[in-house]
Each structure stands twice: as C-alpha cells, then as structure tokens.
Design goal:
The longest helix has 25 residues. The termini are far apart. Helix 4 runs antiparallel to helix 5. Helix content is 36%, strand content 20%. By secondary structure, the chain is α+β, with helices and mostly antiparallel strands.
Length: 415
C-alpha cells in the first residue's frame, strides 16, 4: 500500500504534444486560480489586479472568442466584486514553444472584440512578445511558467489548507514528461553583463542588469521545480520581508547584482535538515552552494562530527565545513571535508567545544553561455545541475534521504 501513488487533481497521462501540454497546463492553472483565492491574489496581483477575499474568481478553459476554431484561446479569467468586473483572455505556450507577435496581435484583437479588459501571455520567456502599445486595445500582461510555479510554492508553504491543490499543480507543471516549465535563455544582455562584472561595478540603472535580474527570477522558479523532482518534497524559496512578489524579488536581484555582481537564491525543502542556497558569482565566474544544518540534539562532539561526516560521505573532499556558535559573528572552526575525514577534532574550537550549526560550502566553475549547445551546458542548465547535486551529495543525505549517484563535476577553490 505504501507504494501506491496518491490520486492527483491534474494528470499528465496521455499528453504527447506541446499543444496538449499547454492546454492541460493552462486549464490546471485556471482551475487552481478559481479554487484557491490566495493563489489568484498572488498571480493576478503580479498583473496589477486586486483580488480580495470577497471577490469572485471564475475561470473558463479553451474559450472560442470568434467564429472560427482558430479563434480559441487557452482560457479566460473573470474577477467580479459587486458591480465591478474584470476579465482577461489567456494565451500560452509550454516548454520551448514561442508566441509570435502575430499570434499575440490576433489574440488581442479577439479579446477586444469580446470586450475583455486584458490579454495575459504565459510562456517560458522572461517577457512576452513586443506588440507595441494601443490605447484602445486590452491591457497586456505576461507571466513565466517558472514564476507561476514559484508563487504556488510560496503560498503552499504558508497555507496548509490549500497545500494539496497547490501540490498537485506544481507536480503537474514540473513533470519531466511534459516539460511545461523550461527556461534556459539568459537573454541578449547576459554576455555584456558577465563581461562588465569582471572588470567594473554593475549599475542598478542599467537596462541589461535589470533584464538579467528578471531572467534570474525565472531561473529560480525552474530551480524549485528541479529540486522538488530530486527531493520528492515540497520546495519554496526563503525570502526576506516584503519580498514575496515577483517584482520585489526581481528588484532584490537587481540590488545584489549591482552591489556584489552576484545572483542568488535560498531554498527550503519540506522536512530537510536545513536550507540550501546557490550563488552565481559573475565576477569570479563560479557557482557557490551553501548548505546550513543543525545537528540532532543531545550528541557529544564525536557523535556530532560522525553524523556530519556520514551525511557528507558523497560530498567532494574540497567542500568547506564551517562550525558556528549561535549569535557568533565568525565561524567557530573551519576545515575541508577531506581534512575532517583525517582529523574530526578540527571542528572543535580552542576550548574544545563544537558549534551549534554547520555551514557547508562548495564551489564550481560557472559556465557563461547564454544558452546551452551540443558541446557544453549553458548557465541555466549548469546551475540547475549544480543545485540538484547539492541536494544529492549534501542536504539529502544529511536529511536522511536516499541519494542518487552524483554526476561528475569539476570543482573550483571554495571561498
């Protein structure tokens, strides 16, 4: 019975084409918007639409806005409160599918004829197609599938009552057989931003910096999907106060790029022993992974280090372990995994005590390709693989999870 698979609201069975994938993904999203008011508030809030507890959200899938079958859009969402009503058509593409300007222009015309207020595009691009502005046409909004997933992850971590519906949506959108979420392009400004970071400070006002930050926000959503697939548990981002929206997180990425030439994100896996972060250091052209864990209570020094080394059995020897005391401003003790394997007492401070928590750091060379090619992985794919390996080699074993054999990887000197 333990091997039985729980029935889910959204099934990926029978999906064979991108058209089927996008229609089923759009319908799953629309159904969730209607069923989970908090999720509707998050998603539509990104488009400037306020959805409070008294608003009614209704959604419709595969809506024909014209007289022909080709006039069908993926769906329509309506928000009403009292005498006020707002409605939008949704057109989407899944995986590597692209929305052409012609397709968006046609959908916008159909939305106008149907007296809808807006047209929402959903793709794996950071931005929708540029079709210009029209004062008489419906307003335009764009969402990335990775951001849709990230918002679901964030809410299910805070709303236990709606967690199952959101779990099923995330599991569907992240299923590898349909590849709805697939973001891999860091955009036309990526190379210039990386080159500038090597020699000078980046500016928060630079359009290229803001574009890269926007695309990184999409990447973090894809990283959540990959980490959930590797861990088999719910994953959410750990963000600071007032950074729960895509816009606020993107602005934080802009600030981090300008101040430190870095892109970063921290993730929490449900039931794991701690959190894990990935940092892309554009100036140093390296990826840095950070795992923070607290040992089980009641263990002595030797047993604590034994627990740590057992969990890091598959970790590279050059990974750095820092022992920290609560409220400490600097590491209590520092040693590499290889050094600890030879001398476990290296994590003890001068007074013979061990820290209350551990921070494990691992660095790797950072591919700088805008996208991958047949010869090498691009930045997004390399970062995704790196994060999954952090789980497989470190946080997963420390959390008592089954470990998948890690792929070979070239490491660099840790900070």
């Amino acid at each position: 019975m333990n091997e039985w698979q729980r029935a889910r609201l959204f099934s990926h069975e029978g999906i064979k084409t991108e058209i089927e994938a996008r229609r089923r993904a759009s319908e799953a999203l629309l159904a969730t918007l209607a069923l989970v008011p908090g999720y509707a508030a998050s998603v539509l809030g990104e488009l400037g639409v306020r959805v409070d507890k008294s608003a009614l959200v209704e959604t419709f899938a595969n809506v024909k806005l014209g007289n022909k079958a080709a006039d069908t859009v993926e769906g329509v969402v309506e928000v009403s409160k009292g005498n006020r009503r707002w409605s939008a058509a949704i057109v989407a593409r899944a995986g590597a599918g692209k929305l052409t300007s012609a397709a968006v222009t046609k959908a916008r015309t159909l939305a106008k004829q149907a007296n809808l207020d807006a047209l929402i595009t959903i793709t794996n691009d950071a931005h929708g197609p540029d079709v210009g502005r029209s004062r008489s046409g419906p307003a335009m909004g764009h969402l990335g599938w990775a951001s849709v997933v990230a918002m679901a992850n964030d809410l299910r971590a805070r709303d236990a009552e709606q967690a199952q519906i959101l779990d099923d949506l995330v599991a569907f959108l992240g299923h590898p057989e349909i590849s709805v979420v697939s973001f891999s392009d860091m955009g036309p400004h990526w190379s210039d931003v990386v080159k500038t970071a090597r020699t000078s400070r980046l500016s928060a006002r630079n359009a290229g910096v803001r574009e890269v930050a926007s695309r990184w926000e999409q990447v973090t959503g894809q990283l959540e999907v990959a980490l959930e697939g590797a861990s088999g548990a719910a994953v959410s981002q750990v963000t600071g106060a007032n950074k729960s929206s895509v816009a606020s997180r993107t602005e934080a990425h802009v600030e981090n790029l300008a101040a430190n030439s870095q892109l970063s994100a921290t993730f929490r896996v449900r039931g794991a022993a701690g959190d894990m972060a990935v940092v892309a250091d554009l100036a140093g052209r390296r990826l840095v992974g950070v795992v923070v864990v607290a040992p089980p209570e009641g263990l002595g020094n030797r047993a604590t280090v034994g627990w740590l080394l057992d969990g890091l059995e598959s970790a590279p020897g050059d990974a750095v372990v820092e022992s920290w005391k609560s409220r400490g401003r600097a590491a209590h003790a520092v040693a590499t995994v290889d050094e600890l394997r030879r001398d476990a007492q290296l994590l003890e401070g001068r007074n013979g005590t061990i820290g209350d928590s551990f921070r494990v750091l691992l660095a790797a060379e950072m591919p700088v390709g805008r996208t991958g090619n047949g010869r090498s992985a691009g930045f997004v794919h390399a970062t995704t693989d790196f994060l999954v390996e952090l789980w497989q080699q470190m946080l997963g074993p420390l959390s008592g999870s089954v470990v998948v054999a890690p792929r070979a990887r070239t490491t660099a000197t840790t900070p």
